[in-house]
Amino acid sequence: MRSHSIAVLPGDGVGPEVTGAALEVLDAAQEAFGFTTERTDVPLGADHYLQTGELLTAEMVTRLREHDAILFGAIGSPRVPPGVLERGVILALRGAMQQAINLRPVRLYPGVPTPIAGLTPQRCDLVIVRENTEGAYVAQGSAVHRDTPAWTAVQESVNTWYAVERAVDFAYRLASVRRGRLTLCHKTNVLVEAGALWSAVVEEVGTRYPDVETDYVHVDAMCMHLPVSPERFDVVVTDNLFGDIVTDLGAVLQGGLGVAASGNLNLGSQAPSMFEPIHGSAPDIAGRGWANPAGACLSLAMMLGDLGEGEAAAAVESATAHVLADLPALAGEGMGASTAELGSRIATAVGEGSAPAVEGSLMSQLAQVMSA
Ligand code: IPM
Ligand code: MG
Hints:
Bound molecules: 3-isopropylmalic acid, magnesium ion
Order of helices and strands: EHEHHEHEEEEHEHEHEHEEHHHH
Number of helices: 12
Largest sheet: 10 strands, mixed
Strand order of the largest sheet: 2-1-3-12-11-4-5-10-8-9
């Protein structure tokens, strides 16, 4: 029987709640599609840090590398100063595992309430490919005269041809199995040096994909076009910081942070990819069962696609979309069911194969590109 080894990092706040739901769905998928997983719990997060002072260590990196995939919940806690866990765990993992891109689908499933008036599922089906290893996220920055009126801070952005090219190439490959359209999102009119490099990469890589149509949108304009006319986008490729920002906006279109999923992909097979819902640890609602597990379940679906379990991936996507469509509202108390109940409903739908197949399953497109 096929077996996959998975490191599970539930993390903080609602992380363990949504991860628990996703694992129940994984159990059902294994049973239905005939594979097994070996799971190792990794205790990274606020508790572990406060008890041991440990963030991601070299030894953990070595152990994590032995797994086929990492399933991540959420990290961050008001008990730890901002940035410590985010940089020391999430960003450290993305870098250590060379997860070259962060794949963030923006798809509105039928029946899911969106705050954007008049938006329909047909008009909202795009994928944002966010460069995941550099940009403003890796420049260390420096400061002088801190805590005086002359406080001066410098924070630059790193852009290498190597990392930009691998992200852009992935985006083109994805566009070529989708609707054949790639949009570069940047700010080339102001960030002229980084912008020139990104544009040159797109121009060069684009010649290898003559069937994909390429265009360009400034990041500020993107924030206007996305909610108003998302149908003009198929695959959007962008840098780390712009990608962070526009994917929160993308999450709103598809029904909120609770339903948005992501995959941090290592594009070779040297280290595992990592799959996480876009939302954070939401300490304000932790422990109440109010967190929507859909983002975690759709991230699980992406993980299954990456592991070569394309049918299971599509089934988890369909089941999640089906259960989401039944919810009266998707936020806080009004969700209509607890995190665990929703997880069970999705698991049942996977087990029974009762959810109608999602048309043009993103998960199967991703599986094609990721296994290529
Ligand atoms: C995300 C998050 C992270 C990021 C934080 C938690 C470091 O906002 O995954 O989008 O900025 O990448
Ligand atoms: Mg973010």
